[in-house]
Design brief:
Length: about 525
């Protein structure tokens, strides 16, 4: 006799997202795995007394999304502390910080005004009053507690008088240009670049706060249909939080931890290799950098910036050092992933991968993060070598007319950014992710389907695949995740509307339900 299913999903429009995409009406799940696919009638015989039958009411059911590139604790900080990304003016930012101050007051002992009030993600460039937040603003939040607000790029901060007093020595030692002063020579409370470092150090979350931040971000993942993500980690307590939650059976998304290259020796010494771990938490790749960003004009270009004719960007990690790190990690059996945004940086990573791999770098499943500007030759090399392009379709918000790309690169090169169509047609594996800006797969799919450069648009099915099986492949997970198929893990997401029916409004589609390993981790039906 066939054992009953633990859970049946019936009356749905189930897309497998395999090639070709097939649709079914129902899915049966037992022990966290998909055991049958078919019409609602095809699975009904698996209903037992303890079976939970979920009526999808015609909703679209897809494989759970996998975000191939995020920084989960950064996402969580926005959720736990004041999220200033929605503020439209300095006053509104101050109001949001004041709300957070009330929460901090309620959470802490009345005689412990040491707990800081923190806000993240303000962007004054969108304000009518286009100026940084200052000490004067933040003193209105509190003159007893430390208060700090960080610009979205984390390169600019504002602090109140309490912080200025407490860090007076460190700030006096910082380079003058990083601590702007007013007409009287007093610090304005604006801090730039390295002057912010002592503040960052002081607010670095410990294990308990990290767990709180991780849990907040995990709840957000579940609400966005994210069943798994690849985290980028450096000197963080997050891996410990993931493993604790996993041991307690409380982890609601699968985590692949990519460690910064300065952790390589430690990983090797404790014997943690790529793909080691449990069903829920695994060690991923060794991560490094090459260049910076277009925003900071630090991405490495073969031709100068359109708005700075003498500049071609900077190496954050120079190619020789990168090659050595890639060689060491590859020789030790690790997958590798490197941040590369400008065309020259993409070429440098491909050089390093090709040098380090005796066979082909695709076998080690090396990846490049971002690949925002790549020429034809680079795309051919990606395809031939099997190196994964881990890209962030939400970055297309910069690709519109008068956007950041056009300012930095000019019109012609802007049309050549984020060439998803060319990469897919050449045979490159695309893995979609968000870089945490924000974590929202449907927003990314929306951008990829409606890209400003029409020639680079993906179909709805292709874009959804990059956020499911493409991302799963980037984590060696294509046999267990990424499509709806018998034998695969039951990681699923139900949507309130069909992305195929309204391709120009995919970002507005609500997530109705998220399922991880057969368990419902989010239900908004
Ligand atoms: Zn990143």
């Amino acid at each position: 006799m066939t054992a009953a299913a633990d859970r049946l999903f019936v009356n749905g429009e189930v897309h497998t997202l395999a090639a070709p995409d097939e649709t079914h009406g129902a899915v049966a799940v037992r022990d966290g795995a998909i055991v049958r696919l078919g019409s609602t009638r095809d699975v009904e015989f698996l209903e037992g007394v303890d079976t939970d039958v979920v009526d999808l009411g015609g909703r679209v059911l897809l494989p759970g999304f996998v975000d191939a590139h995020t920084h989960l604790t950064t996402v969580g900080r926005y959720l736990v502390h004041a999220d200033l990304s929605g503020a439209d003016s300095p006053d509104e930012a101050v109001d949001l910080l004041a709300e957070r101050a009330t929460e901090v007051d309620a959470e802490s002992d009345s005689d412990a005004p040491a707990d800081p009030v923190l806000g993240y993600g303000y962007d004054e460039s969108t304000w009518e009053e286009d100026r940084y937040l200052t000490r004067a603003d933040l003193d209105r939040v509190s003159t007893e507690r430390p208060v700090a607000a960080f610009r979205e790029d984390m390169h600019v901060a504002a602090v109140n008088g309490v912080v200025l007093d407490r860090f007076a020595d460190a700030l006096a030692a910082a380079p003058d240009e990083t601590v702007p002063t007013d007409a009287d020579g007093e610090p304005t409370g604006v801090l730039l670049e390295s002057a912010i470092d002592p503040i960052y150090e002081a607010i670095e979350p410990g294990p308990a706060e990290t767990r709180e931040i991780v849990e907040a971000a995990l709840a957000d993942c579940a609400a966005k249909g994210i069943a798994g993500f690849h985290d980028m980690v450096r000197n963080s307590h997050a891996p410990r939080a993931y493993r604790e939650l996993d041991a307690e059976g409380e982890l609601t998304a699968r985590v692949r931890v990519n460690y910064w290259s300065d952790h390589l020796d430690a990983l090797r010494e404790v014997g943690l290799g790529t793909n080691d771990g449990s069903d829920m938490v695994r060690t991923g790749a060794i991560k490094s950098y090459t260049d910076g960003s277009f925003g900071g004009r630090t991405a490495r270009l073969s031709e100068p910036y359109a708005d700075a004719p003498d500049e071609t960007g900077q190496w954050v990690v120079d190619p020789r050092e990168l090659s050595e790190t890639v060689a060491a990690a590859t020789a030790a059996g690790y997958q590798f992933t490197a941040h590369a945004i400008g065309d020259e940086a993409v070429d440098a990573v491909l050089d390093a991968y090709e040098e380090a791999s005796e066979a082909d770098p695709g076998e080690a499943r090396h990846r490049i993060e971002h690949v925002e500007l790549a020429d034809d030759e680079a795309i051919d090399r990606l395809a031939t070598s099997g190196v994964v392009a881990s890209v962030q379709p939400n970055f297309l918000k910069w690709a519109g007319e008068d956007g950041l790309y056009e300012a930095r690169l000019g019109q012609e090169r802007t049309a050549e950014t984020n060439r998803y169509r060319d990469m897919l047609d050449a045979g490159v594996t695309l893995a979609f992710g968000s870089d945490g800006m924000p974590m929202d797969p449907l927003l990314g799919v929306h951008h990829a389907v409606n890209a400003p450069a029409e020639a680079q648009r993906l179909t709805v099915t292709e874009a959804l695949r990059a956020y499911t099986r493409g991302a799963a492949y980037a984590g060696f997970d294509e046999d267990r995740l990424g499509t709806v198929a018998v034998g695969k893990r039951a990681d699923l997401v139900a949507l309130d509307a069909s992305p195929w029916e309204a391709p120009d409004a995919i970002r507005d589609i609500g997530v109705a339900m998220t399922v991880v390993d057969g368990d419902v981790v989010y239900d908004e039906r």
